[in-house]
Amino acid sequence: MTVGTVNISLADSLSAMSGALFGEPVAAQIHLILVEIRLPRILLAILVGAVLASTGAVMQGLFRNPLADPSLIGVSSGASVGASLMIVVAGGFVETGALMGLSLVAVGAFVGGFAATLLVYRLATSDIGTSVTTMLLAGIAIGALAGALNSLFSYFADNDMLRQISLWQMGNLSGANWPKVSMMALVAVLLFSAFPRDSRALNALLLGESEARHLGIDVQRVKRRLIILTALGVGLTVALAGMVGFVGLIVPHVVRLLIGPDHRWLIPASAVAGALLLVVADSLARIVLVPAELPTGILTALLGAPFFIALLLQQRREL
Amino acid sequence: MSMCAENISLHRSGFDLLRHVSMTVEAGKVTAIVGPNGAGKSSLLRVLTGEMQASKGRVLLNGRTLSQWPIIERAQLLAVLPQHTTLNFPFTANEVVGLGRIPHQTGSATDAEIVAQALKLVDAQYLQKRFYTQMSGGEKQRVQLARVLAQIWQPCPGEEQFLVLDEPTSAFDLAHQKLTLDIVRQLAARGVGVVMVLHDLNLAARCADNLVVFDGGLIAAQGSPEEILTEQLIQQVFGVKAIIDRHPTTHKPLVITE
Questions:
Q1: How many domains does chain A have?
Q2: Is residue A38 part of a domain?
Q3: What is the pTM of this model?
Q4: Which residues of A touch B75 (CB under 8 A)?
Q5: pLDDT digit string (tens) for B59-74?
Q6: What's the rounded Cα separation, in Å, for the pair A204 and B55?
Q7: Average pLDDT of the segment spanning A9-36
Q8: Distance (Å, rounded) from C-alpha A58 to C-alpha A38?
Q9: In a domain, A229, yes or no
Q10: Between A216, A218, A261, which is nearest B90 by CB?
Q11: Which of A215, A221, A263 to mutate to test binding with chain B, by most B CBs within 10 Å of its CB?
Q12: What is the largest CA-CA distance in chain A?
C-alpha cells in the first residue's frame, strides 16, 4: 500500500484506511490513491496470482505432466486473439467503451479464451472419452493458429494499437478497480470451493485414467468440471490483467518440489504462493521505474525464473 | 457369486481380439490366464474390468453387469493392477498405497494402518518414505501391488471381492515371485476371487485352481492345471516341445521345455 509513484508513509496509509472504514475525513488525494487505485490493485494481484497458480496445479495434475500450464488448453492464446481483435477492430472505442467496468478488450479476451478451450475440448473428446494427449496437441495447434492471427492483427494495427496489444500481452494490473476485483473474487471463491472436492481424484489421476477409474473415480466428469473451471478462471484473469505468464507454470512446480505432489495441499499452497509472487512482482513493477510503471508480467518472469533455476540446481546437488 | 465373462467377442479396428470367450472367476479361487503374446489375455482383462466395452457378450460381477454397479461400490470390491503404471510425480510409497483407500471412508488412522500393513506384506516396509520416482522397477511393482491390496484389504459386507492382476510378477526376482503367489493364495483363502495373467507356466500351475489357456483370441483349454496341461496342448498353443512332469514336492505339473 505504501509503495508507488506517490510516496505515502505507512502511518498515513493506516490512518487513511481507518478513516475510510470509519468515515473520517482524509486528504482527498491520498484517499483516492489508496482506496481507488492501490487497494483494488493489490487485491486483484492476490486473486489473479492465486487463480493462475492453482489452476496451473490442477492442469499439471489433470495432464499428468509437471510442465503443463493453463495456456496449454488454449485459454491464453484464445484470449489474446480476442483481445487483439478488439484492439484492432474496435480501436477508438477501447479507450472510452466500458461495459460493467470491463473494457471491450477484456470481454474479447474472455470470450476468445472460453471459445478456444471449448474448441480444444471438443476436438479431444470422442465416444471413448477425452484424450489428454489429443487435447495437448489440439492446444498446441490452436496456440499456433492464435499466434498467426495475432501477428495478422498486429500487421494491420497502427502504432498506437500495436503498443496496446504488446502492453496487454505483457500482463498489467494497472487497470484494477472495484468492479474488476469483485468479479475476480466471485470466480476465485467458486474455484476454491470446488477444487478441494476433486483433490483426491487428481491424486488418483496421476496414476493414469484407467487406474483412477478402478479407484472409483468418475474420470470423465472430474475432467470436464476441472477444465471448465480452469477456462473460467484463467479466461477471466487474462481478461482483467492481460497475459501474466509464468505464474501458472512455475509456482505449482516450485511448490511441488517443496511440499510434494499431494493435491490436497498443493492447490491451496500454490494459490498462496502465486498470490505472494504476484503482489511482490506488482509492487516492484510500480516502483522500479518511478514515475513510470513496468508491466507486471515482465517482473513475474524476472523474479520467478532465477528462483526456479536456483531450486533446480539445489535439487540436482541433493541427488 | 463370481465374476463372469459370458460369450465375449471384441472387435477393434478390423481385428477380432476375442472370439466367444466364456469364463468364470470364482470367489475364493485363483484363476490364471496364460497364452502366447497377443493371444487376447490382456484384452480379456480389459473387458472384465470395464476398460473396454465388449462388442458382444456381457460381464457379470456378483450377478450385475459392470455398468449397473455404481462406480464407487465397484471400486470397493474390484481392484485392478495393470501391467504398467507410469507415475512421474514424486509421491512416497505411503502416498501411492494410500491412493488405494480412496473408495473407502474408513478414516485416516485406519487407512494409515492398512497402508503400513500392505507395504509390510509385499516386503516394501523400507520404502515407506522413499519417492516412487526413485525406486527400481521391482520396487515400483511391489508398491503398486500393495496399493491394490490396500484397496480390498477389508472384506466388503455382503459382496465377494475380486482382484485382477496383469503380469504381477514380471519385474520380480525369485523371492518376490514366490511372495506374490503366497499373497494371492492367502487372499483366495480369505474368499477373494483372483484372476491374473502369468507368463511362467510353472508359476501358474503351482498357484492356480483354474487355468485358462488363450490362443488367437479363443480359449484353447480351461480347467485345473493337472487336467489340461499336456505336451500336446503346449505344442499346439506355443509351438514348443515340452515334457510335463510332476514337481517333486508339490506334485503339481511341471513344464520342462526342450
A1: 1
A2: yes
A3: 0.85
A4: 214-216
A5: 999 999 998 999 999 9
A6: 29
A7: 64
A8: 30
A9: yes
A10: A261
A11: A215
A12: 65
Q: Which residues of B touch A66 (CB under 8 A)?
A: 88-89
- pLDDT tens-digit map of A154-164: 888 777 777 77
Amino acid identity at A185: A
Helices (H) and strands (E) in chain A, counts: 15, 4
CATH of the domain at A140: 1.10.3470.10
Question: For residue A280, how far is the Cα from the chain centroid?
Answer: 15
**Residue B87 cell numbers, joined:** 507415475
For residue A315, the number of C-alpha atoms closer than 13 Å in the C-beta half-sphere is 12
State whether residue B156 sits within 8 Å of chain A by CB: no
B253 touches chain A (CB under 8 A): no
Q: Which domains does chain B have, with CATH numbers?
A: 2-257 (3.40.50.300)
Strands (E), chain B: 2-12, 15-26, 30-34, 56-61, 64-65, 78-81, 162-166, 193-197, 210-215, 218-223, 242-246, 253-257
| Residue of A66, A216, A260 with shortest CB distance to B75 | A216
pLDDT on residue B196: 95
- Grid cell 507356466 is found at B201
Provide ipTM, 2 decimals. Answer: 0.90
d(C-alpha A288, C-alpha A308), whole Å: 22
Is A262–B51 a contact, with Cβ atoms under 8 angstroms apart? no
Q: Of A206, A210, A215, which has the smallest distance from its Cβ to B89's Cβ?
A: A206
Residue A164: which domain range?
A: 10-318
Going from the C-alpha of A62 to that of each of A121, A209, B140, the distances in angstroms are 13, 9, 22
